[in-house]
Amino acid sequence: MDQTGVYTADDGTELWYGHVGDGPPVVLCDGLGCDGFIWSHLIDSLVDDFTLIRWHYRGHGESEAPDALDSMTLETLARDLHGLLETLDLESTVLAGHSLGVQLIFEYAGDHSDRVRGLVPICGSYKYPLETFHDDDTLGRALPYLERLVDVAPGIAQRIWSRLATSSLSKVVAMTTETDASRISLQTLNPYLEHVARMDVQVFVALLSDAADHSAEALLPELTAPTLVVAGEHDTFTPLYRSREMAQLIDDSELIVVPEGTHVAPLEAPDLVNHAITDFMMEGL
User: Fold this and answer.
1) How far apart are CA 280 and CA 285, in angstroms?
2) 0.85 cut: is pTM over it?
3) Which of helix, strand or coil describes residue 82?
4) What SS3 state is found at 232?
5) Among 11, 148, 168, 262, fewest CB within 10 Å belongs to which?
6) Which residue range(s) make up the domain with 33?
7) What is the DSSP string of 100-138?
8) CB atoms within 10 A of CB 274
9) How many independent structural domains does the chain possess?
10) In this predicted structure, what is the pLDDT of residue 202?
11) Lowest-confidence range among 3-17, 164-178, 268-282?
């Protein structure tokens, strides 16, 4: 049975978590603007052999938004993650991260390597993700203007944000350019778009800005935990070469590429991804 709870971060922010299954723990760390939609197939596959722990970042899902926007950083999320492990009395765990969650699990492993049994970075970058979004730096160059709009006119920005996130155009773009529409339905993607639309745009942009400047490149050669890198061949958010670089920088690592997979490869090819992660969990640790 899925059990849920709330714990208090060191700044008083109330954060949601849930866990299901029985066995060695695996903590699932979402992408930016996500509240767990990417993990559905993985949880079904691993629930009989592992304890799957989900949680919502501050300002995401069922968790509170922080009082101060300057706490929307990967460093703070890593402290929140540590608080979760302390709350659940977990001394050692596998960390799986999707998209921004990849940066987070590296941030955490750099400070608490003794508590990390294994790492599963999925469809994410280890450094400066906006520099390679769609294989150019357009989004990175546009970010300062987005930050200014959100700062100067937050109400207007929020209305535009909420309408765009669930607009027909956004759904068409998502299905035709960001995912493989032959392997994933709009119904599967809708929970993500609806969650993003409900988010405080200031929270989203603050965390995006921090992630844009984040790099774990110097850390990766120091990692000792076994690592399984999962990448989508046609991921437009994180190009495949970033995942190849990541695997090369981590000594004890393996790379699995999902053929024709995009940024949501775990939903497009669940059997392949789940089988690879199960083998890694059963045999690689």
Assistant:
1) 7
2) yes
3) helix
4) strand
5) 168
6) 3-283
7) HHHHHHHHHHHH-GGGEEEEEEES--SB-GGGSGGGSSH
8) 17
9) 1
10) 96
11) 164-178
